[in-house]
Design a protein that fits this description.
With 503 residues, this protein is an alpha+beta fold. The protein folds into two domains: 80-192, Uridine Diphospho-n-acetylenolpyruvylglucosamine Reductase, domain 3 (2-Layer Sandwich); 198-423 and 487-501, 3-Layer(aba) Sandwich (Vanillyl-alcohol Oxidase, Chain A, domain 3). It has 14 helices and 20 strands. The strands form five sheets. The chain has an eight-stranded antiparallel beta sheet. The longest helix is centred in the C-terminal third of the chain and has 16 residues, at 396-411. It starts with 20 loop residues before the first strand and ends with a helix. The structure holds flavin-adenine dinucleotide. Flavin-adenine dinucleotide binds next to β2, α2 and β9.
């Protein structure tokens, strides 16, 4: 087995340190997991595999600690293999980053139709999680823009998937979290834009009810819309925040449309967090003072300005390894979606729950999902409102809070996002994603993830006891081996950029 290189293959939450085994996805070894050379030099074959993109998932859907990761980037040279500037159709290897796609197509007036809060995700990872952006109400999920997938399976070889050819496997692969096989290449449609720059409109609101009074009309008017919530404000300020909307600027506006940095590492960044502080500074009095100041930064009323696209979509990318600010034990992100009817009361209950557990969320984001159907079998987005909360991992008390948030979400008929998760129960997953049984039936027998092992494989209908064991602990272990030296290393500016990034 050829190693993919000295990469840690962490997930973004950094909840569990492990020496992970990986090999380039092009390596032939995974295709015949039970084969391999006979003889004394033969190594015990790994039990299972899992594609790995760029590790921007927060939890353990991109991990398979009992097996081997198939790295779609390292040890390979992923390429954009075709692009038609007339139609905006693009074909690329799965390991190509969104930043690389933008750089390739922007000069021709095209942009990604759906993009998350970081441009350092791979095409394969975006399909496998059927990601969403700030324009879900207009464009739906990323999977809606996928025309064709070239999928390689250990049992069936290379297959072409489209909405009409191998249609069920196409639907299962979009949102399939890497379990249906290795996406080698995909063809997508891009979105025509007059300019990359964004005309950003910020409206400060004083209560949660004010947000709910604004959200639907904002979606109707704007391509992009999302809200930041000051989750620490109480009393009559409860649920206050900023509603940030955006539209592509008219042709000719070139406000900061540079598409240069696609490394995902430190270059071109505002700052980089060089080590992990022993205790997360994103807590306690700092958090409250920061939220207060950030809220006041936007003047009352509505304000409009034109901003560079990278600042609007990806400000977090300007701070290298910002996830280290959550301390050596990492961070949990809890993203829920709840139906539109009654959403205000449920979101209120979720925010009150976090507040009553005295674990402020540093970054709290609220967004309305539209009703465009996601093509994936187990896609997370669905009509309603989605609330995202971030918490430094503080052991049992954080896990108790997260379980309570799950309970409120499920009682409201909602779901918890798997690709942000490292600890939800099998029952929570099953309740939000009834399509999991079909995905299990279509799973490539060579593929397995830590997430799947600790959720689906523990549910009664799951088939494979061999792959189900050994189970990874549901409680993430504290991270060790961090190069911490006691300095805090955070600044207001960095914190501000992090919050702006999540709008
Ligand atoms: C700062 C930040 C902001 C974010 N904002 C958003 C957001 O707004 N909306 C949103 O939806 N998500 C968001 N995310 C999450 C992120 O977009 C997704 O987790 C994304 O899928 C990560 O892509 P990746 O390439 O890093 O894949 P990984 O995290 O490495 O893997 C993700 C999944 O894809 C599978 N996979 C990867 N490559 C392949 C392949 N070639 N073939 C088959 N399966 C594959 C893996 O097995 C895994 O299950 C954000 C993450 C960060 C860090």
């Amino acid at each position: 087995m050829r190693e993919a290189g000295p990469h840690h293959h962490d997930s973004w939450g950094r909840l569990k340190a492990a020496a992970r085994r990986a090999m380039p996805a092009t390596d032939a070894a995974w295709r015949a997991p039970s084969g391999g050379p006979a003889g004394p030099e033969r190594q015990p074959e790994p039990a299972s595999f899992l594609p790995y993109g760029n590790g921007r998932s927060y939890g353990d859907t991109c991990h398979n600690d009992a097996g081997v990761l198939l790295d779609a980037r390292h040890g390979m040279a992923p390429q954009i293999t075709a692009f038609d500037p007339e139609t905006g159709r693009l074909t690329a290897d799965a390991g190509v980053l969104f930043s690389e796609i933008t750089r390739h197509v922007a000069g021709h007036g095209w942009f990604l139709p759906v993009t998350p809060g970081t441009q350092f995700v791979t095409l394969g990872g975006a399909i496998a999680n059927d990601i969403h952006g700030k324009n879900h109400h207009r464009r739906g999920t990323f999977g809606r823009w996928v025309e064709e997938i070239e999928l390689e399976r250990s049992d069936r070889g290379v297959l072409t998937l489209t909405p009409s050819e191998n249609a069920e496997l196409f639907a299962a692969t979009i949102s399939g979290m890497g379990l249906t096989g290795l996406i080698r290449r995909a063809t997508i449609r891009l979105m025509k834009v007059a300019s990359l720059a964004i005309v950003e409109t910020t409206t400060r609101f004083d209560t949660l009810s004010d947000y709910f009074a604004l959200a639907e009309a904002a979606d109707a008017r704007h391509e992009y819309a999302v809200a930041w919530i000051d989750s620490l404000a109480g009393g009559r300020n409860f649920g206050r925040g900023h509603l940030i909307c955006g539209d592509h600027a008219p042709a000719g506006d070139e406000t900061g449309d540079k598409t240069g940095d696609d490394s995902g590492e430190a270059s071109g960044q505002l700052a980089s967090i060089p080590f992990t502080p022993p205790v997360s500074p994103l807590a306690g009095p700092f958090l409250k003072a920061f939220n207060e100041a950030y809220f006041r930064k936007a003047k009352a009323g509505t304000h409009t300005r034109t901003v560079p696209f990278a600042g609007f979509f990806y400000p977090l990318d300007r701070i290298g390894a910002w996830n280290r600010l959550y301390g050596p034990r990492g961070l949990h992100q809890h993203q829920s979606v709840v139906p539109e009817a009654g959403a205000e009361a449920v979101v209120r209950a979720l925010l009150e729950c976090a507040k009553s557990h005295r674990q402020g969320s540093f970054l709290t984001v609220l967004k309305r999902f539209g009703d465009l159907q996601s093509p994936g079998l187990t896609s997370f987005p669905r009509p309603g409102y989605t609330l995202t909360l971030d918490f430094p991992h503080r052991g049992e008390k954080t896990l108790r809070l997260l379980a309570e948030l799950d309970r409120i979400t499920l009682a409201a008929g909602g779901a918890v996002n798997p690709y942000k998760d490292a600890r939800m129960s099998p029952e929570t997953f099953s309740a939000g994603f009834p399509g999991w049984r079909r995905l299990e039936a279509l799973r490539d027998p060579a593929m397995m993830s830590d997430f799947w092992r600790r959720t689906a494989m523990r549910l009664p209908a799951a088939a494979s006891p061999v792959l189900a064991a050994p189970a990874t602990p549901a409680v993430p272990a504290a991270r060790d081996g961090d190069n911490s030296n006691g300095s805090r290393g955070s600044s207001f500016t960095i914190a501000e950029t992090i919050v702006a990034a999540r709008h």
